[in-house]
Amino acid sequence: MNGIELPFEHKMAAHCETGTVTALLNHAGMQLTEPMVFGIAGGIFFGYLKSADLPFPMFILRSRPGEIREKISKRLGIKFHEQRFRSTEAGQAALDEAIRQGHPTAVQVDFFYMDYMPEWQRVHINAHYIIVFGMNGSSYHVSDSYYKQQSKLDRSKLMTARFAGGMMAPKGTMFYPVHIPENPDYEKAIITGIRKACFNMLRLPIPFLGIKGIRKFADKVVEWPSIARDMEDLSDRVMKINIFLEDQGTGGGGFRYMYATFLQQAAGIVKDDRLNTMSKQMMEIGDKWRNISYFAAKIGKHRDLGVERMKELSRMIHSQADEEHKFFKELYQLVK
Amino acid sequence: MKEKEIRVDYKAHEVILYAEKEDHSYAPVQTGASLTAQYLDDFFLKKQNLERELKEEMKKGAISPVYYYMLMQDIGIGDLAKRIGISKRKLRKHFRPEVFAKLDEGMLEKYAVVFGIQVEDVKGIK
Fold first, then answer.
1. Which A residues 236-275 touch B at CB under 8 Å?
2. Listed residue (B77, B90, B84) closest to A53, CA to CA
Protein backbone atom coordinates (compact mmCIF):
# COMPACT_ATOMS: atom_id res chain seq x y z
CA MET A 1 0.00 0.00 0.00
CA ASN A 2 1.23 3.48 -0.80
CA GLY A 3 1.59 5.61 2.25
CA ILE A 4 -0.79 8.53 2.80
CA GLU A 5 -0.11 11.43 5.14
CA LEU A 6 -2.76 14.13 5.19
CA PRO A 7 -1.67 17.64 6.14
CA PHE A 8 -2.72 18.05 9.74
CA GLU A 9 -1.51 20.37 12.48
CA HIS A 10 -0.73 18.48 15.66
CA LYS A 11 -1.48 20.34 18.88
CA MET A 12 -1.61 19.37 22.52
CA ALA A 13 -4.89 20.02 24.31
CA ALA A 14 -6.13 19.90 27.88
CA HIS A 15 -8.59 17.11 27.30
CA CYS A 16 -8.74 14.37 24.68
CA GLU A 17 -12.38 14.67 23.57
CA THR A 18 -12.64 18.47 23.50
CA GLY A 19 -9.13 18.59 22.02
CA THR A 20 -9.99 16.13 19.26
CA VAL A 21 -13.28 17.80 18.33
CA THR A 22 -11.61 21.25 18.37
CA ALA A 23 -8.71 20.08 16.20
CA LEU A 24 -11.06 18.54 13.62
CA LEU A 25 -13.19 21.70 13.49
CA ASN A 26 -10.12 23.94 13.23
CA HIS A 27 -8.84 21.74 10.43
CA ALA A 28 -12.17 22.17 8.63
CA GLY A 29 -11.76 25.94 8.85
CA MET A 30 -13.87 26.74 11.89
CA GLN A 31 -12.18 29.06 14.39
CA LEU A 32 -13.15 27.73 17.77
CA THR A 33 -11.15 27.28 20.97
CA GLU A 34 -11.09 24.18 23.14
CA PRO A 35 -12.79 25.95 26.10
CA MET A 36 -15.52 27.22 23.74
CA VAL A 37 -16.20 23.66 22.57
CA PHE A 38 -16.24 22.50 26.19
CA GLY A 39 -18.60 25.27 27.32
CA ILE A 40 -21.05 25.16 24.43
CA ALA A 41 -21.29 21.40 24.84
CA GLY A 42 -22.05 21.96 28.55
CA GLY A 43 -19.18 19.66 29.44
CA ILE A 44 -18.68 20.68 33.06
CA PHE A 45 -20.04 18.14 35.52
CA PHE A 46 -19.46 16.05 38.61
CA GLY A 47 -20.29 12.48 39.48
CA TYR A 48 -19.23 9.97 42.10
CA LEU A 49 -19.24 6.46 40.71
CA LYS A 50 -19.00 3.02 42.24
CA SER A 51 -19.46 -0.17 40.26
CA ALA A 52 -18.09 -3.67 39.72
CA ASP A 53 -16.59 -2.33 36.51
CA LEU A 54 -14.29 -0.08 38.52
CA PRO A 55 -11.41 -1.32 40.64
CA PHE A 56 -12.20 1.43 43.16
CA PRO A 57 -14.82 4.20 43.47
CA MET A 58 -13.98 7.22 41.36
CA PHE A 59 -15.31 10.61 40.42
CA ILE A 60 -15.85 12.22 37.05
CA LEU A 61 -15.73 15.93 36.27
CA ARG A 62 -17.18 16.13 32.79
CA SER A 63 -20.16 14.87 30.83
CA ARG A 64 -20.48 11.38 29.35
CA PRO A 65 -17.87 10.48 26.68
CA GLY A 66 -19.25 11.21 23.23
CA GLU A 67 -21.50 13.98 24.48
CA ILE A 68 -19.09 16.79 23.58
CA ARG A 69 -19.38 15.91 19.90
CA GLU A 70 -23.14 15.32 20.03
CA LYS A 71 -23.93 18.60 21.77
CA ILE A 72 -21.53 20.81 19.83
CA SER A 73 -23.00 19.37 16.66
CA LYS A 74 -26.57 20.02 17.76
CA ARG A 75 -25.97 23.52 19.14
CA LEU A 76 -23.86 24.88 16.27
CA GLY A 77 -25.43 22.93 13.39
CA ILE A 78 -22.25 21.02 12.53
CA LYS A 79 -22.71 17.64 10.87
CA PHE A 80 -20.38 14.77 11.63
CA HIS A 81 -20.12 11.52 9.78
CA GLU A 82 -20.18 9.00 12.62
CA GLN A 83 -19.91 5.24 12.48
CA ARG A 84 -19.67 2.22 14.77
CA PHE A 85 -18.96 -1.32 13.79
CA ARG A 86 -19.68 -4.90 14.71
CA SER A 87 -16.58 -6.28 13.04
CA THR A 88 -12.96 -5.22 13.26
CA GLU A 89 -12.47 -5.73 9.52
CA ALA A 90 -15.31 -3.37 8.62
CA GLY A 91 -14.01 -0.83 11.13
CA GLN A 92 -10.53 -0.93 9.68
CA ALA A 93 -11.77 -0.76 6.07
CA ALA A 94 -13.95 2.28 6.83
CA LEU A 95 -11.10 4.09 8.56
CA ASP A 96 -8.72 3.41 5.67
CA GLU A 97 -11.34 4.63 3.22
CA ALA A 98 -11.88 7.85 5.20
CA ILE A 99 -8.13 8.53 5.15
CA ARG A 100 -7.99 7.81 1.42
CA GLN A 101 -10.79 10.33 0.90
CA GLY A 102 -8.73 12.91 2.75
CA HIS A 103 -10.51 13.12 6.13
CA PRO A 104 -8.43 13.27 9.28
CA THR A 105 -10.64 11.04 11.42
CA ALA A 106 -11.23 10.81 15.16
CA VAL A 107 -11.36 7.35 16.69
CA GLN A 108 -12.35 6.23 20.17
CA VAL A 109 -9.79 3.93 21.78
CA ASP A 110 -8.62 2.22 24.96
CA PHE A 111 -5.78 4.49 26.12
CA PHE A 112 -3.79 1.47 27.36
CA TYR A 113 -2.71 0.49 23.85
CA MET A 114 -1.27 3.91 22.90
CA ASP A 115 2.27 2.63 23.18
CA TYR A 116 3.98 5.90 22.26
CA MET A 117 3.02 7.09 25.76
CA PRO A 118 5.25 6.17 28.73
CA GLU A 119 4.15 2.85 30.20
CA TRP A 120 3.32 4.24 33.64
CA GLN A 121 0.77 6.60 32.13
CA ARG A 122 -1.09 3.95 30.21
CA VAL A 123 -4.25 2.75 31.90
CA HIS A 124 -7.30 0.94 30.58
CA ILE A 125 -9.75 3.74 29.76
CA ASN A 126 -12.05 3.17 26.84
CA ALA A 127 -13.01 6.82 26.51
CA HIS A 128 -9.87 8.13 24.88
CA TYR A 129 -9.95 9.93 21.52
CA ILE A 130 -7.18 10.43 18.98
CA ILE A 131 -7.04 11.60 15.39
CA VAL A 132 -5.77 9.39 12.56
CA PHE A 133 -4.39 11.44 9.68
CA GLY A 134 -2.35 9.00 7.64
CA MET A 135 -1.31 5.40 7.15
CA ASN A 136 1.04 2.97 5.46
CA GLY A 137 1.16 -0.83 5.24
CA SER A 138 2.02 -1.39 8.89
CA SER A 139 0.96 1.66 10.87
CA TYR A 140 -1.19 4.76 11.24
CA HIS A 141 -0.11 8.36 11.74
CA VAL A 142 -1.91 9.61 14.81
CA SER A 143 -2.28 12.88 16.65
CA ASP A 144 -2.94 12.44 20.37
CA SER A 145 -3.63 15.67 22.24
CA TYR A 146 -1.94 14.23 25.37
CA TYR A 147 1.35 13.74 23.58
CA LYS A 148 3.92 16.32 22.56
CA GLN A 149 4.35 15.22 18.99
CA GLN A 150 2.44 13.27 16.39
CA SER A 151 3.13 9.55 16.54
CA LYS A 152 2.81 6.24 14.77
CA LEU A 153 0.71 3.36 15.98
CA ASP A 154 0.84 -0.20 14.72
CA ARG A 155 -2.25 -1.17 12.66
CA SER A 156 -3.18 -4.13 14.82
CA LYS A 157 -2.62 -2.11 18.04
CA LEU A 158 -5.04 0.55 16.87
CA MET A 159 -7.64 -2.07 16.01
CA THR A 160 -7.25 -3.76 19.42
CA ALA A 161 -7.71 -0.33 21.01
CA ARG A 162 -10.74 0.56 18.88
CA PHE A 163 -12.42 -2.77 19.57
CA ALA A 164 -11.49 -3.27 23.23
CA GLY A 165 -14.48 -4.64 25.12
CA GLY A 166 -15.63 -3.77 28.62
CA MET A 167 -16.92 -0.62 30.21
CA MET A 168 -17.79 2.08 27.62
CA ALA A 169 -16.51 -0.16 24.82
CA PRO A 170 -15.56 2.04 21.83
CA LYS A 171 -17.09 -0.39 19.26
CA GLY A 172 -14.86 1.09 16.60
CA THR A 173 -16.44 4.55 16.87
CA MET A 174 -14.99 6.99 14.36
CA PHE A 175 -16.09 10.42 13.14
CA TYR A 176 -15.15 13.45 11.08
CA PRO A 177 -17.03 16.66 10.22
CA VAL A 178 -18.81 16.81 6.87
CA HIS A 179 -20.71 20.07 7.16
CA ILE A 180 -19.70 23.33 8.85
CA PRO A 181 -22.38 26.05 8.97
CA GLU A 182 -21.45 29.48 7.56
CA ASN A 183 -22.74 31.67 10.36
CA PRO A 184 -23.48 29.65 13.44
CA ASP A 185 -25.42 31.40 16.21
CA TYR A 186 -22.70 31.43 18.87
CA GLU A 187 -24.66 33.55 21.34
CA LYS A 188 -27.58 31.18 21.44
CA ALA A 189 -25.30 28.13 21.62
CA ILE A 190 -23.35 29.64 24.53
CA ILE A 191 -26.49 30.44 26.50
CA THR A 192 -27.93 26.97 25.88
CA GLY A 193 -24.62 25.37 26.91
CA ILE A 194 -24.52 27.34 30.16
CA ARG A 195 -28.15 26.64 30.95
CA LYS A 196 -27.65 22.92 30.38
CA ALA A 197 -24.53 22.87 32.58
CA CYS A 198 -26.47 24.56 35.41
CA PHE A 199 -29.27 22.05 35.02
CA ASN A 200 -26.84 19.12 35.19
CA MET A 201 -25.08 20.47 38.25
CA LEU A 202 -28.18 21.56 40.16
CA ARG A 203 -31.20 19.59 39.13
CA LEU A 204 -30.49 16.04 38.04
CA PRO A 205 -32.61 13.93 40.39
CA ILE A 206 -29.82 11.40 40.98
CA PRO A 207 -28.03 11.30 44.34
CA PHE A 208 -24.50 10.91 42.99
CA LEU A 209 -24.52 13.42 40.11
CA GLY A 210 -23.95 17.18 40.03
CA ILE A 211 -23.56 19.04 43.33
CA LYS A 212 -25.10 16.01 45.04
CA GLY A 213 -22.21 14.01 43.58
CA ILE A 214 -19.64 16.30 45.21
CA ARG A 215 -21.39 15.80 48.55
CA LYS A 216 -21.51 12.05 47.99
CA PHE A 217 -17.77 12.09 47.30
CA ALA A 218 -17.14 14.11 50.48
CA ASP A 219 -19.23 11.67 52.55
CA LYS A 220 -17.76 8.54 51.04
CA VAL A 221 -14.07 9.45 51.01
CA VAL A 222 -13.85 8.85 54.77
CA GLU A 223 -14.84 5.22 54.09
CA TRP A 224 -11.98 4.68 51.65
CA PRO A 225 -9.59 3.30 54.32
CA SER A 226 -12.00 0.41 54.91
CA ILE A 227 -12.26 -0.57 51.24
CA ALA A 228 -8.61 -0.21 50.24
CA ARG A 229 -6.50 -3.39 50.21
CA ASP A 230 -3.83 -1.91 52.45
CA MET A 231 -2.10 1.34 53.31
CA GLU A 232 -0.20 1.57 50.03
CA ASP A 233 -3.35 0.94 48.02
CA LEU A 234 -5.13 3.65 50.02
CA SER A 235 -2.23 6.02 49.41
CA ASP A 236 -2.42 5.28 45.70
CA ARG A 237 -6.19 5.89 45.58
CA VAL A 238 -5.96 9.14 47.50
CA MET A 239 -3.14 10.38 45.26
CA LYS A 240 -5.27 9.54 42.24
CA ILE A 241 -7.59 12.33 43.38
CA ASN A 242 -4.83 14.61 42.17
CA ILE A 243 -4.49 12.73 38.88
CA PHE A 244 -8.24 12.89 38.19
CA LEU A 245 -8.31 16.61 39.01
CA GLU A 246 -5.13 17.71 37.30
CA ASP A 247 -2.87 15.47 35.28
CA GLN A 248 -5.37 13.25 33.56
CA GLY A 249 -6.44 15.79 30.98
CA THR A 250 -8.65 18.37 32.70
CA GLY A 251 -6.85 21.64 32.00
CA GLY A 252 -6.35 21.91 35.78
CA GLY A 253 -8.61 22.27 38.80
CA GLY A 254 -10.87 19.48 37.55
CA PHE A 255 -11.94 21.22 34.29
CA ARG A 256 -12.85 24.32 36.31
CA TYR A 257 -9.98 26.38 34.81
CA MET A 258 -11.14 25.50 31.32
CA TYR A 259 -14.71 26.43 32.20
CA ALA A 260 -13.51 29.77 33.60
CA THR A 261 -11.73 30.38 30.30
CA PHE A 262 -14.92 29.56 28.42
CA LEU A 263 -16.92 32.04 30.53
CA GLN A 264 -14.34 34.76 29.89
CA GLN A 265 -14.49 34.18 26.13
CA ALA A 266 -18.28 33.92 26.27
CA ALA A 267 -18.54 37.29 28.06
CA GLY A 268 -16.94 38.92 25.01
CA ILE A 269 -19.23 37.20 22.54
CA VAL A 270 -22.58 37.69 24.27
CA LYS A 271 -21.41 41.10 25.58
CA ASP A 272 -22.38 40.49 29.17
CA ASP A 273 -19.79 41.61 31.68
CA ARG A 274 -21.45 39.62 34.46
CA LEU A 275 -20.01 36.49 32.83
CA ASN A 276 -16.54 37.97 33.42
CA THR A 277 -17.30 38.13 37.12
CA MET A 278 -18.53 34.54 37.04
CA SER A 279 -15.39 33.55 35.16
CA LYS A 280 -13.18 34.93 37.96
CA GLN A 281 -15.24 33.07 40.53
CA MET A 282 -14.90 29.84 38.59
CA MET A 283 -11.13 30.33 38.46
CA GLU A 284 -11.11 30.60 42.26
CA ILE A 285 -13.22 27.47 42.58
CA GLY A 286 -10.65 25.76 40.36
CA ASP A 287 -7.86 26.97 42.67
CA LYS A 288 -9.63 25.34 45.59
CA TRP A 289 -9.92 22.05 43.74
CA ARG A 290 -6.21 22.37 43.05
CA ASN A 291 -5.61 22.84 46.79
CA ILE A 292 -7.52 19.62 47.39
CA SER A 293 -5.38 17.79 44.88
CA TYR A 294 -2.15 19.10 46.47
CA PHE A 295 -3.44 18.10 49.89
CA ALA A 296 -4.42 14.61 48.67
CA ALA A 297 -1.03 14.09 47.05
CA LYS A 298 0.79 15.21 50.19
CA ILE A 299 -1.10 13.06 52.71
CA GLY A 300 -0.96 10.13 50.28
CA LYS A 301 2.79 10.41 49.89
CA HIS A 302 3.36 10.60 53.64
CA ARG A 303 0.82 7.81 54.33
CA ASP A 304 -0.77 10.34 56.64
CA LEU A 305 -4.23 8.84 56.15
CA GLY A 306 -5.74 8.51 59.59
CA VAL A 307 -9.35 9.30 60.51
CA GLU A 308 -8.69 12.97 61.20
CA ARG A 309 -6.88 13.56 57.91
CA MET A 310 -9.60 11.86 55.90
CA LYS A 311 -12.20 13.97 57.69
CA GLU A 312 -10.21 17.07 56.85
CA LEU A 313 -10.21 16.04 53.19
CA SER A 314 -13.95 15.40 53.39
CA ARG A 315 -14.57 18.87 54.82
CA MET A 316 -12.59 20.47 52.00
CA ILE A 317 -14.72 18.63 49.44
CA HIS A 318 -17.96 19.56 51.21
CA SER A 319 -16.92 23.18 51.10
CA GLN A 320 -16.45 22.82 47.33
CA ALA A 321 -20.02 21.55 47.08
CA ASP A 322 -21.22 24.67 48.89
CA GLU A 323 -19.22 26.95 46.62
CA GLU A 324 -20.31 25.28 43.40
CA HIS A 325 -23.92 25.19 44.53
CA LYS A 326 -23.84 28.93 45.07
CA PHE A 327 -21.96 29.51 41.84
CA PHE A 328 -24.27 27.55 39.53
CA LYS A 329 -27.40 29.02 41.12
CA GLU A 330 -26.03 32.48 40.41
CA LEU A 331 -24.94 31.54 36.90
CA TYR A 332 -28.38 30.11 36.14
CA GLN A 333 -29.96 33.45 37.02
CA LEU A 334 -28.00 35.04 34.14
CA VAL A 335 -29.21 32.64 31.46
CA LYS A 336 -32.68 31.45 32.46
CA MET B 1 -4.25 30.39 38.95
CA LYS B 2 -1.60 32.62 37.44
CA GLU B 3 0.61 31.28 34.71
CA LYS B 4 3.85 31.66 36.65
CA GLU B 5 2.41 29.80 39.66
CA ILE B 6 1.24 26.93 37.53
CA ARG B 7 4.41 26.28 35.55
CA VAL B 8 6.48 23.22 36.46
CA ASP B 9 9.63 22.35 34.60
CA TYR B 10 9.28 18.65 33.85
CA LYS B 11 9.74 17.50 30.29
CA ALA B 12 8.95 13.79 30.75
CA HIS B 13 5.24 14.43 31.22
CA GLU B 14 3.67 17.63 29.99
CA VAL B 15 0.05 18.72 30.05
CA ILE B 16 -2.03 21.70 28.99
CA LEU B 17 -3.48 23.73 31.84
CA TYR B 18 -5.58 26.88 31.58
CA ALA B 19 -4.18 29.78 33.57
CA GLU B 20 -4.26 33.54 33.95
CA LYS B 21 -1.79 35.41 31.74
CA GLU B 22 -0.15 38.76 32.62
CA ASP B 23 -2.93 40.62 30.75
CA HIS B 24 -5.56 38.79 32.88
CA SER B 25 -6.82 36.70 29.98
CA TYR B 26 -7.13 32.96 30.55
CA ALA B 27 -5.27 30.81 28.08
CA PRO B 28 -3.66 27.37 27.62
CA VAL B 29 -0.20 26.85 29.10
CA GLN B 30 1.99 23.86 28.32
CA THR B 31 3.74 22.76 31.49
CA GLY B 32 5.19 19.76 33.32
CA ALA B 33 2.68 17.66 35.28
CA SER B 34 3.12 18.62 38.92
CA LEU B 35 2.09 15.33 40.48
CA THR B 36 4.27 13.24 38.22
CA ALA B 37 7.21 15.55 38.75
CA GLN B 38 6.99 15.26 42.53
CA TYR B 39 5.62 11.82 43.20
CA LEU B 40 6.55 9.46 40.37
CA ASP B 41 9.14 7.71 42.59
CA ASP B 42 6.49 6.96 45.17
CA PHE B 43 4.19 5.62 42.47
CA PHE B 44 6.91 3.24 41.25
CA LEU B 45 7.75 2.17 44.78
CA LYS B 46 4.15 1.16 45.45
CA LYS B 47 3.90 -0.59 42.12
CA GLN B 48 7.07 -2.61 42.83
CA ASN B 49 5.84 -3.58 46.26
CA LEU B 50 2.52 -4.71 44.83
CA GLU B 51 4.31 -6.69 42.13
CA ARG B 52 6.51 -8.42 44.71
CA GLU B 53 3.59 -9.27 46.99
CA LEU B 54 1.51 -10.66 44.15
CA LYS B 55 4.40 -12.76 42.86
CA GLU B 56 4.85 -14.24 46.32
CA GLU B 57 1.14 -15.04 46.45
CA MET B 58 1.46 -16.70 43.10
CA LYS B 59 4.43 -18.80 44.24
CA LYS B 60 2.40 -19.96 47.20
CA GLY B 61 -0.32 -21.03 44.79
CA ALA B 62 -2.85 -18.57 46.17
CA ILE B 63 -3.54 -16.61 42.97
CA SER B 64 -3.32 -17.06 39.19
CA PRO B 65 -1.66 -14.78 36.60
CA VAL B 66 -5.12 -13.47 35.67
CA TYR B 67 -5.50 -12.02 39.15
CA TYR B 68 -1.92 -10.72 39.04
CA TYR B 69 -2.45 -8.78 35.81
CA MET B 70 -5.88 -7.54 36.82
CA LEU B 71 -4.39 -5.86 39.88
CA MET B 72 -1.20 -4.70 38.18
CA GLN B 73 -3.22 -3.04 35.43
CA ASP B 74 -5.91 -1.89 37.86
CA ILE B 75 -8.91 -3.23 35.96
CA GLY B 76 -12.27 -3.74 37.68
CA ILE B 77 -13.66 -7.29 37.85
CA GLY B 78 -16.80 -6.41 35.88
CA ASP B 79 -14.78 -4.57 33.25
CA LEU B 80 -12.33 -7.45 32.78
CA ALA B 81 -15.15 -10.02 32.59
CA LYS B 82 -16.83 -7.99 29.82
CA ARG B 83 -13.56 -7.60 27.94
CA ILE B 84 -13.03 -11.38 27.97
CA GLY B 85 -16.70 -12.11 27.37
CA ILE B 86 -17.36 -14.26 30.45
CA SER B 87 -19.36 -13.77 33.64
CA LYS B 88 -17.83 -12.26 36.78
CA ARG B 89 -18.44 -15.57 38.52
CA LYS B 90 -16.45 -17.44 35.93
CA LEU B 91 -13.70 -14.82 35.99
CA ARG B 92 -13.36 -15.26 39.75
CA LYS B 93 -12.78 -18.97 39.17
CA HIS B 94 -9.88 -18.08 36.87
CA PHE B 95 -8.20 -16.40 39.84
CA ARG B 96 -7.54 -19.90 41.21
CA PRO B 97 -4.31 -21.43 39.88
CA GLU B 98 -5.77 -24.94 39.52
CA VAL B 99 -8.63 -23.65 37.35
CA PHE B 100 -6.32 -21.33 35.43
CA ALA B 101 -3.97 -24.26 34.60
CA LYS B 102 -6.79 -25.92 32.65
CA LEU B 103 -7.70 -22.95 30.45
CA ASP B 104 -7.43 -23.59 26.71
CA GLU B 105 -5.26 -21.59 24.32
CA GLY B 106 -8.21 -19.59 23.00
CA MET B 107 -9.03 -18.24 26.45
CA LEU B 108 -5.35 -17.49 27.19
CA GLU B 109 -5.14 -15.63 23.88
CA LYS B 110 -8.07 -13.42 24.94
CA TYR B 111 -6.31 -12.57 28.19
CA ALA B 112 -3.07 -11.86 26.31
CA VAL B 113 -4.82 -9.35 24.01
CA VAL B 114 -6.55 -7.54 26.87
CA PHE B 115 -3.36 -7.34 28.97
CA GLY B 116 -1.31 -6.37 25.91
CA ILE B 117 1.19 -9.21 26.37
CA GLN B 118 2.21 -12.53 24.75
CA VAL B 119 0.40 -15.79 25.55
CA GLU B 120 3.61 -17.20 27.11
CA ASP B 121 3.64 -14.26 29.51
CA VAL B 122 0.09 -15.01 30.58
CA LYS B 123 1.13 -18.55 31.48
CA GLY B 124 4.35 -17.83 33.27
CA ILE B 125 5.32 -14.53 34.77
CA LYS B 126 9.00 -13.79 34.83
1. 236, 239, 242-243, 246-247, 249, 251-253, 257-258, 260-261, 264
2. B77
Which residue out of A114, A283, A294 would a mutagenesis test of the B interface target, given it has the greatest number of B Cβ atoms within 10 Å? A283
- A160 touches A113 (CB < 8 A): yes
Residue B31 β-bridge partners: B15
> What stretches of B10-84 show up as alpha helix (H) in DSSP?
34-59, 65-72, 77-84
Residues A184-228: tens digit of each pLDDT: 999 999 999 999 999 999 999 999 999 999 999 999 999 999 999
* Cβ atoms A36, A261 nearer than 8 A: no
B73: which chain A residues are within 8 Å (Cβ-Cβ)?
Answer: 112, 123-124
Q: Which residues contact B4 (CB under 8 A, 6 or more apart)?
A: none
**What DSSP element (H or E) covers A332?**
helix A307-335
CATH of B41-123, one of 1.10.3300.10, 1.10.645.10, 1.10.260.40, 3.40.50.300: 1.10.260.40
Q: What is the ipTM of this complex?
A: 0.95
Find how far residue B47's CA is from the centre of its chain. Answer: 9
Question: Cβ distance A260 to A327 under 8 Å?
Answer: no
Confidence of residue B126 (pLDDT cuts 50, 70, 90): low
CA–CA dist A193, A270 (Å, integer)? 13
